[in-house]
Amino acid sequence: MAKAISKRPAKKRPRKAKAGTRGLGASDSLLTDLSGDAAETKEAIEKAGGVVTGQYYDPLGKNPLLVAVLPIDKVEPTPYQRDVSDMHHKKLAYVLDKTGIFLDPIIAITAPKGGGFWTPNGGHRLAAMKRLGAKAITALVVPKREVAWEILALNTEKAHNLKDKSLEVIRIFRHLMEDHASEPEKKFEFYLEEPSYATMGLCYEKNPRFSGGVYNSFVRRLTEFSEESLAKSLKAHERIAGMLMELDADVADVVKKLKDRGFVSPYLKTFVVARSNPLRFMKVAPELDDLIRTIHGKVKKFNVERVKQEDIVASGGGAPEEE
After folding, report:
1. Residues 6+ apart with CB under 8 A from 258
2. Cα–Cα distances in angstroms (integers) from residue 118 to residues 155, 165, 275, in the given order
3. Phi (first) and psi of residue 140, to 5 degrees
4. Domains located in the chain, CATH noted
5. What pLDDT digit, counting tens, does each position of 22-65 carry?
6. Whether this model's pTM surpasses 0.85
7. pLDDT for res 160
């Protein structure tokens, strides 16, 4: 049954709590004896040649945490986080070299198959320290390995662009597939954040200069986390990504024709897609596949002869084309 188009409900954010009503007090955070995953993590640190310098309960959720100094050659970034910026890590290395002190420990977990550690939050600091030739690095080691996925939520104060966020999500999706391929995609909503990110991530993998900002608004609006398994959901994301890549190629052809006619704007792709997208006039939400086919059909028939400069100016730009 067709459903009416409606805005997505805003995500629920926790309300401000009364001061001093949650978590542990300072003295209650003392952790004297390790057990379970925490004890195994300490053993892994020592086996790798590292040393545990402290241990405590996280005051918010009472999760055991270990402060450690790890051999730097035993630490790598998680394979699904955003790529390290060459400029940023070199600048960070310069500052560390000048100050001669490392004050911001990386977050680390034990690698899934043993033999070292992953840092889901600290890639640039790790790269900077390696650039300086450091032998070891200070880390806050978390026995709960799932934090490597949850780091997306923990990093919400750092505004990743659409490309970085989408590439992270599709990499996390594939790692979830290793152990949870038969479980529903919706179960992992917290880690994947937005269902459109997986689709966009597949597009960016095929074309790093993909204009995701042009398409994400309607893909996000018409995509929901599926009750189907991760394996089936991935195939659905791959199908949509393929359709978007084909659409983008034809949009690029129209943009070239507009440029050949003398039109200059950083938002030509946005203009072409917006003019071909009927979603804002539709009272009932279409299936995403059908909408993409409709847009694609209009793009193929796009008449550049009827476009005026004031049309492009009036469109007001919109989403960035390269993200």
Report:
1. 268, 272, 304, 307
2. 16, 19, 46
3. -100, 105
4. 34-149 (3.90.1530.10), 159-315 (no CATH)
5. 889 999 999 999 999 999 999 999 999 999 999 999 999 899 99
6. no
7. 66
